[in-house]
Automatic annotation (TrEMBL):
This is ORC1-type DNA replication protein. Residues 55-206 form the AAA+ ATPase domain. It comes from Halobellus rubicundus. GO terms for molecular function: ATP binding. The keyword Transmembrane helix does not apply.
Length: 415
């Protein structure tokens, strides 16, 4: 039986470098929004429309992850609501919604405290939303976060969802002034392939949040690092190095906070007096690899197979994996892998799968001009190609799509 006294004693950090680790929790509301004055002004200007009798039907708030979209939009809208009697704001995160019906129901829940039953359908839910909004102040902003998680499902088309939300009969009948702020990573029209009917009902207002550069990331992180760590536990040069790396790689506050937290844990485990550059490097290396490995393990079989082809050539005598490779080299590598016939992919199939992999951010491609051979597409992994080989055995063991004996015996082809 486990002795829990021993267990907790063994796992307690002695001489921890942290004094208040919560300061590094990305879910924690910052006291102050730093460095987003332009975006705060844009949102404030839009909200001030209330005093002139106009709010846009939609505002797209977009930009890469961890760039402060949610925190900034919520803060400015909240502060405006606190100063304006005729205005209210509600926030709904749609990340976990598996269907358009559940997304609408989530909005219903936020406005009324209850959900509607499935038998009432999307119409019933929207009717409930309009009824609830009648009791709201004259102007309402509904912030819909992670709206890009809304996808086509078997029952509803996102176009219907948006059309109802923007121009639903119940809304028009009641003359409701509802403005929807859509928070997402991409511009929605592009991402969700919205049709022209919906697009014309949207207002085209946009607020863009670019990735953070070094100076802004430094201003956001400094107070949190100071609060989280013991005095002197993150020397200036190490802090600056971490910020520079985080800005260069991600421009994302959430990832930057995680980098410093994990580097601090590594330094504590190693019994160091302070975090070092090596602790940051080790964290970058493992988190990068872990994240990619997870993505690789979740790939459909054909996509994974193509990656084994992209990484299937070894340079002699260096022993390095050849990068970049061409589409024909990928196909040739797959043909040398002793694959069962049903797994042999045509050049065209490989091309399509490479496009998918590029969309997923797993490969980069470009076209090189090769004199008489014409233009040739070059393909390489966006991460260390060795990681595909490292994960191979696990992929074969964990995937249930193939008989492990029949494929992927030895992807290593000499070049
Ligand atoms: N300008 C800022 N000032 C202070 N803290 C910030 C700022 N930007 C981001 N943060 C911190 O980073 C966290 C993540 O930001 P936020 O959730 O707003 O990002 P996001 O752009 O909405 O990301 P995602 O697209 O992944 O949802 C916030 O909770 C906050 O702690």
């Amino acid at each position: 039986m486990t002795d829990y006294d021993d267990l907790f004693a063994e796992t307690a950090a002695s001489d921890s470098l942290f004094v208040d680790k919560r300061a590094l929790d990305p879910l924690r509301e910052p006291d102050e929004i730093v460095a987003r004055s332009e975006q705060q002004q844009q949102v404030a200007r839009l909200l001030n429309g209330v005093h002139e009798g106009y709010l846009p039907t939609t505002v797209s708030i977009y930009g890469p992850p961890g760039t402060g979209k949610t925190v900034t939009t919520r803060r400015v809208c909240g502060e405006f609501a606190a100063r304006t009697e005729t205005f209210a704001v509600e926030y709904v995160n749609l990340k976990e919604c598996r269907s358009l019906f559940s997304a609408a129901n989530e909005i219903h829940l936020e406005l009324t405290g209850t959900k509607r039953g499935a038998y009432e359908g999307l119409d019933g839910v929207f009717e409930g939303i309009w009824e609830a909004l009648e009791a709201y102040p004259e102007w309402t902003v509904l912030i819909l976060d992670e709206i890009d998680h809304i996808q086509h499902d078997s029952n509803y088309d996102p176009n219907d969802f948006f059309y109802r939300l923007l121009r639903g009969e119940g809304k028009l009948k009641r003359d409701l002034n509802l403005s929807v702020f859509l928070v997402s990573n991409e511009l929605l029209e592009v991402d969700l392939r919205l049709d022209s009917r919906v697009k014309s009902a949207m207002d085209g207002e946009e607020v863009f949040f670019p990735p953070y550069g070094v100076a802004l990331l430094e201003r956001i992180l400094r107070p949190r690092i100071e609060q989280a760590f013991r005095d002197g536990a993150v020397p200036d040069a190490v802090f600056e190095y971490g910020v520079r790396e985080a800005a260069r790689r991600w421009g994302d506050v959430r990832k930057a906070l995680r980098l410093f937290r994990q580097a601090g844990e590594t330094a504590t485990e190693r019994g160091l007096e302070a975090v070092t550059r090596e602790c940051l490097d080790a964290t970058i290396e493992t988190t990068g690899k872990e994240a990619v490995t997870e993505k690789l393990l979740a790939l459909p079989f054909n996509h994974f197979l193509v990656l084994t082809g992209v990484t299937g050539w070894t340079e002699r005598p260096s022993g390095e994996i050849k990068q970049p490779v061409t589409t024909s080299e990928v196909v040739a590598s797959l043909h040398q892998q002793n694959l069962a016939e049903e797994f042999l992919l045509s050049e065209r199939a490989v091309r399509e799968l490479v496009t998918d992999l590029e969309t997923m951010g797993l490969v980069d491609t470009w076209v090189d001009s090769r004199g008489r051979e014409g233009r040739v597409k070059q393909i390489e992994t966006s991460f260390d190609p060795q990681w595909v080989r490292d994960v191979l055995e696990r992929y074969v063991a964990e995937t249930e799509q193939v008989d492990p004996e029949s494929v992927l015996a030895d992807p290593d082809v000499g070049s």
